[in-house]
């Protein structure tokens, strides 16, 4: 039984299963096939080369073109990055990271830990990121994985342990930078989804509120809702521009969209309450006594915008307008 037959059956030592030859191999099977070819590369008749390339073609047909790969030379292990073209020509190809090396690092827990970090980062990038940023992040992961696997080869070749440890420390720093890139990219994409949700709900509030503008009795509250929603949008845009807006990006796009939609709702609600407090006389507008009705309406719009822009200001203003209830005096002893 040839080693190649074993290679195309699975990631276990007993690899022979002729029924699996016709379908696309797993990455573990591809690693075994490549190792057989590499081991027999100097043989006069290397049948493993043809079998490996056939397995590679079937693998690429299913997962996409192999754009980057590293194959260990002393043990059956490897990592690869594939890209599959999309139907739209200008769309970024679909990237996928592959690795099989657990049996190569069972005696190297320090390298295994860093490879596990690579796997974790690749999963997050694959699920959370989209487009060019996903491709960049996965290429950074692939580069770090290749360097780490080269250290496995170096130890198998009895390289100097101090140089291996120094190289491993450099890869830890490289992985940290890759993780920083992922964090920045994921937060940026979450901000886009958040912003879309915020603008969509703010537009819906404006449209629905506009339908009630014909009712004079509710016109101030309706105008306040629109101004408060606009203030909430401007507040978030300003924080994004200042670089001080962080989101939980691993929770998925629907949740980020939902959180974005809540922001103008809260801003509109706070603005309506503030405007109603001023209109009812609970609080007084900081304008001159001889101001016209138009001046009062514009002042309410400004205050409503500020209420949506800063929820803390609105809460503090309302808290200051409504005095706290006094605690009842304690009864004298013996009464």
Annotation keywords:
three-stranded antiparallel beta sheet; elongated; disordered N terminus; 335 residues; 10 helices
Give a quick rundown of the structure.
This protein is mainly alpha-helical. 63% of the residues lie in helices and 6% in strands. The chain has two domains: 3-187, no CATH class; 189-321, no CATH class.
In terms of quaternary structure, the protein is single chain
Low-confidence stretches: 1-21
Q: Could you give a short account of the major beta sheet?
A: 3 strands, antiparallel
The CA-CA distance between the termini, in Å, is 103 Å
User: On the 0-100 scale, what is the average pLDDT?
Assistant: 81
Listing every helix as H and every strand as E from the N terminus to the C terminus, the arrangement reads HHHEEEHHHHHHH
Strand content: 5-15%
Count of β-strands: 3
What gyration radius follows from the Cα positions, in whole Å?
32 Å
SS element count, helices: 10
Q: What's the helical proportion of residues?
A: 55-70%
Shape: elongated
Structural class: mainly alpha
Number of domains: 2
Describe the strand arrangement of the main beta sheet, using strand numbers.
Answer: 1-2-3
């Amino acid at each position: 039984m040839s080693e190649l037959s074993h290679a195309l059956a699975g990631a276990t030592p007993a690899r022979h299963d002729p029924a699996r030859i016709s379908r696309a191999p797993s990455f573990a099977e591809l690693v075994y096939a490549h190792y057989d070819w590499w081991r027999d590369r100097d043989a006069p008749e290397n049948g493993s080369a043809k079998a490996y390339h056939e397995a590679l073609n079937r693998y690429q047909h299913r997962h996409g073109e192999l754009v980057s790969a590293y194959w260990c030379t002393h043990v059956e292990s490897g990592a690869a990055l594939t890209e599959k073209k999309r139907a739209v020509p200008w769309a970024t190809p679909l990237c996928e990271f592959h690795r099989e090396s657990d049996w190569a690092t069972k005696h190297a827990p320090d390298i295994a830990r860093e490879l596990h970090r690579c796997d974790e980062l690749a999963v997050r990038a694959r699920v959370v990121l989209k487009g060019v940023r996903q491709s960049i992040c996965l290429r950074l992961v692939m580069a770090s994985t290749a360097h780490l696997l080269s250290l496995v080869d170096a130890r198998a070749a009895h390289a100097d342990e101090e140089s291996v440890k120094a190289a491993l420390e450099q890869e830890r720093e490289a992985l940290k930078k890759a993780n920083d890139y992922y964090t920045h990219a994921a937060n940026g994409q979450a901000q886009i989804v958040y912003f879309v949700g915020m603008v969509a709900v703010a537009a819906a509030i404006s449209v629905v509120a506009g339908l009630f503008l014909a009712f004079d009795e509710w016109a101030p509250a309706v105008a306040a809702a629109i101004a408060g929603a606009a203030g909430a949008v401007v507040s978030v845009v300003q924080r994004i521009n200042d670089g001080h807006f962080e989101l939980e990006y691993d929770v998925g796009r629907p949740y980020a969209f939902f959180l974005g939609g809540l922001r103008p709702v809260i801003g509109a609600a706070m603005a309506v309450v503030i405007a109603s407090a001023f209109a009812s006389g609970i609080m007084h507008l900081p304008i001159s006594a001889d101001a016209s009705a138009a001046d009062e309406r514009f002042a309410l719009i400004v205050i409503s915008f500020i209420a949506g822009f800063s929820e803390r200001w609105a809460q503090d203003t309302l808290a200051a307008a409504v005095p706290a209830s006094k605690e009842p005096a304690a009864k004298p002893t013996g009464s």
